[in-house]
Amino acid sequence: MRRGALTLVRVLALPALLVGLWALATADSHSYYISTPKQVVSAFADTWIGPRLVDDVLPSLGRLAVGYLVAALLGIALGVVIGRHARVRATLEPVLEFFRATPPPVLVPLLILLSGVGNTMKVLVIVSGCVWPVLLNTVEGVRGIDQELIDTCRSYRIDGVARLRHLTLRAASPQIVTGLRQALSIGIILMVISEMFASSSGLGFTIVQFQRTFAIPEMWSGIVLLGLLGFGLAMAFRAWEHHVLSWYFGVRGERAGA
Amino acid sequence: MSAAAPAAASSSAARPARRRRRGLPRAVYGVAGLVGFLVVVQLVPTLGIVSERYLPPTTKILDALGQEVASSAFWTAVADTMQAWAIGLAIAFSAGLVLGVIIGSVPFLRAATSSTIEFLRPIPSVALIPLAVLVFGTGLQSTLLLVVYASFWQVLVQVLHGVLDVDPVASETAHSFRFGRWARVRHVVWPTALPYVMTGLRLAAAVALILAVTAELVIGAPGLGHEIALAQQGGATADLYALVVATGLIGVAINVVVRAVERRALHWHPSVRAEAVT
Questions:
Q1: Per CATH, is B58-277 categorized as 3.30.9.10?
Q2: pTM for this predicted structure
Q3: Are B192 and B113 in contact (CB under 8 A)?
Q4: Cβ under 8 Å to A: B residues 59-98
Q5: What is the pLDDT of residues B223-247, one digit of tens each?
Q6: How large is the angle between the packed helices A58-84 and A119-143, nearest 10 degrees?
Q7: Of B140, B129, B135, B128, whose CA–CA distance to B85 is shortest?
Q8: Lowest-pLDDT range, A123-132, A147-156, A177-186, B20-29?
Q9: Closest C-alpha among B255, B214, B205, B215 to residue B96
Q10: Any idea what the Cα angle at residue B238 is, between residues A108 and A197, rounded to 5°?
Q11: What is the ipTM of this complex?
């Protein structure tokens, strides 16, 4: 009981202190750019709870979800193929290195050119940015599968779907999950940018619109919302990761303990 | 592949042989892949699968790239982008390193800051774009705000992991030899944390470029991203592709340089030594 309370204090002390400082600093200044915590909280409730949630926030999240899932499937599927065949890997490596090193946001103008301004473009932007970390990590994971496991599978004549499921994907999954985690933060960035660059709705557009019309507390509330989304998605991902990779953490924990 | 040796002996004995056989062709495959990619990009618009207005053939892109490279405006833009990248990365790296070592070595600070770090880290830095525009306008400072925010967390988190990874035996040994605080950081913490620091640097260098270009693209700060936005608005398709290729090449160059720095700084470390042996 006491330990729980202590943990709670430890978790909340610094955030409370920071918000307190923020409130103090803005209490009697009339800075135009920095709103008080109270203003931001009330702007948050007024702005985001209501029609905006349905018109701007949910479509943005929907595009993120679709783009992210497509990128994940594409990246894993291609990654398994490329990772298993040494020659394919050697052939594609320089091209893939180039695409990985290209900052994904520069693809936004290209994709506007290729697919116009619309939902397709925004989803494609997310796919085109998210696919590389998944793909390259899957390749690494598949390439690094223990030779003994591969040989065991061969001697038991495990092949086809069973091999894919029990050997390839399972053994590569820690790396695949790493790729998926990197892709998630890139996906959020691209979701926002694609809407800031060319759009008339969505989360990114709305926040820039607030800034252009000098709706300062609303703009801050948008920043807070994006922060909460980033944080929430990261937490959800971590929970999922622990669920999917529990066997892996278990193995590592045992080795570390021994 | 089909003539696989018996499983037990294969893993250690067969591998060097296999590698030798692949030694030269590997590079050949890579070049072939690159050339193949360029040929596909050449053929797709030439055969009319995608209109040339949307995807110019390789020759036109390379032509445009050649013209860009010959113009001084291009190099000014590259210099602007690289300046924002370098300054932002330097600030983020030193701040992340110093704070990481301090927070990591004091248990109280670690406990008190962990919730705040966990909350601030996943905030997408593009959320700060409106704030940057409002406070700093469209200059270098806006770009720097985004670059520093995004890459700072990469460094900090890695340094924190690194400092925590110190071997307790080494730590206690240093204690019994009465190492001072500074000597402990220098001889015990630093060598343990260095691989993590280098990982942080590598991640931060890539993220810094992404955010530098993004700021230029969205906010309009001078640099390659801004040039790309202008080319897109002006309908100069070949230039647009050429600039994107140039940005990608800068990204590749940054990766190569940072990897080299990493290998040099960690030449004593088992992970790099193992690489050198094979």
A1: no
A2: 0.83
A3: no
A4: none
A5: 999 999 898 888 888 899 999 999 9
A6: 30
A7: B140
A8: B20-29
A9: B205
A10: 20
A11: 0.81
Domain harbouring A238, CATH code: 1.10.3720.10
How many Cα atoms occupy the beta-carbon half-sphere of B134 within 13 Å? 22
CA–CA separation, B226 vs B216, rounded Å?
Answer: 5
Q: Which domain holds residue A123?
A: 42-257
Residue A85 pLDDT exceeds 80? yes
Lookup result for tokens 């990469």: B154
The Cα B55–Cα B58 span in angstroms is 9
For residue A26, is it within any domain?
A: no
Q: pLDDT tens digits for B156-211?
A: 999 998 888 888 888 888 888 888 888 888 888 888 889 889 989 998 999 999 99
Distance CA B166, CA B151 (A): 24
Identify all chain A residues contacting B111, using CB atoms and an 8 Å cutoff: 10
How many domains is chain A built from? 1
Picking from A90, A207, A211, the nearest residue to B29 by CB comes out as A90
* Cβ contacts of A197 on chain B, cutoff 8 Å: 217-218
Q: Between chains, do B124 and A185 touch, taking CB under 8 Å as contact? A: yes
Give, in order, the Cα–Cα distances in Å from B196 to each of A136, B77, B113, B163, B179: 21, 33, 20, 9, 23
Per-residue pLDDT band for B6 (boundaries 50, 70, 90) equals: very low
> Is A77 inside any structural domain?
yes
Full DSSP string of chain A: -HHHHHHHHHHHHHHHHHHHHHHHHHHS---SS---HHHHHHHHHHHHSSHHIIIIIHHHHHHHHHHHHHHHHHHHHHHHHHHH-HHHHHHHHHHHHHHHHS-GGGHHHHHHHHH-SSHHHHHHHHHHHHHHHHHHHHHHHHHTS-HHHHHHHHHTT--HHHHIIIIIHHHHHHHHHHHHHHHHHHHHHHHHHHHHHS-SSSHHHHHHHHHHTT-HHHHHHHHHHHHHHHHHHHHHHHHHHHHHTHHHHHHHHHHHH-
Residue of B nearest to A150 (CA): B7
Task: Answer whether residue A158 is part of any domain.
Answer: yes
